[in-house]
Amino acid sequence: MFEQVTREEAEAPFFVGIDLGGTNIKAGVVDDRGRVLWRDQVPTYVERGPNDGARRIGELIKRAIAEVGVSDDEVGGVGLGSPGTMDIPGGKLVVPANLKGWEHFPIRDEVSKVCGRPVVFANDATAAAFGESWVGAGKQFDSLILLTLGTGIGCGIVIGDMLLDGQHSHGGEYGHTVIDCRPDAPTCSCGRRGHLEAFASATAVTRRAKAAL
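Below the sequence we write its predicted structure tokens.
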């Protein structure tokens, strides 16, 4: 659990983080020491499409800054973490398995237009790994691997204090590792069979539990 502080205790600059998931969009504001001032979440509503999603993310960023009560010059940056696959340098979603209908969408720039600020785009699990290496469970280590479990399975990799995105922004797509080669293996959200995500994501575990009842 990350440390929480009040606005009076916090140290500028402040950073806004967005975690875009297949189920929820989560937001948080931290200070220069990584301490949490504010957090909230709203449903993703994937079916409404990427333009609506980008608009709502941008509005959430503006609300976060307003509710914390910081001035424009105290905001050090805005970060957006998203599930893959993605083109990180281009700021685009490519074929995000858990965001159907959001393919090839320039989400970084569209969110930036709404919130009126530059946005840094990253793989969501890589962003989480950075957070753990900065102020969390991995801060005493130079290298770490972090797995996230939610609608899908993500993987963030830090090696020697460097974030590993991979040559094509796919460096941490661990959830799509094939673990079952049977032709009737469970189908993954990406449409292929036998991937780890089809067995061990929170969505898959819930589905399997309901089937067993």
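The beta strands are 14-20, 24-30, 36-43, 75-82, 86-87, 92-93, 120-123, 144-149, 153-159, 162-163.
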